[in-house]
Here is the input.
Amino acid sequence: CAVSTLSGEQSHHAFTMPATPLTDEHWSGLPLLMCNMDPGLYRLDVHTPMLVTRDDLGSQVEVLNDGSRRVAFRQAPLRFDLFSAGLVIDAVSDRPATKSLVVALPAPWLPGDDGAADGQIRLRSRFQFADPQLRRLVWRLSTHHCSGEPLGHSYSGAVSGTLVDRIMRLQFALDARHPD
Here is the structure.
């Protein structure tokens, strides 16, 4: 049984991350979820890459297996966290209703990678970053959903595709500046 250095609590006392789907199978864009945490320790095994943002101060987060390093940070308002598939995360909320918007990034939305064994591109984790263009795209997508898709399904798909394209451009730019 592992102990989180953030919480000092045994990980078997962790709650599963409470994420409620905002979208359903009829939605033509990227899946949107709302994470609403009350005080406590939460454990999340990331199966699908996800982009997370919030308007208010968020949880204290510890990424337990991001390569050879352990990463800990407090989620700041109006910042993004991109969690890649395969991560294990502990999050400690210290107040009621700590809310975050989650944009899931499932494989069908991501470009392929001919060099990868499974043909899928791997998103790299990135924490506490700001990007005004990405913020506008997430706002457009979530607002369009909350308004009942007034511009239609094709708009949801187009904004989602542009959002994925922006994430990929940010990753490629970061890879160019800091190659392995």
In short: The chain has two helices and eleven strands.
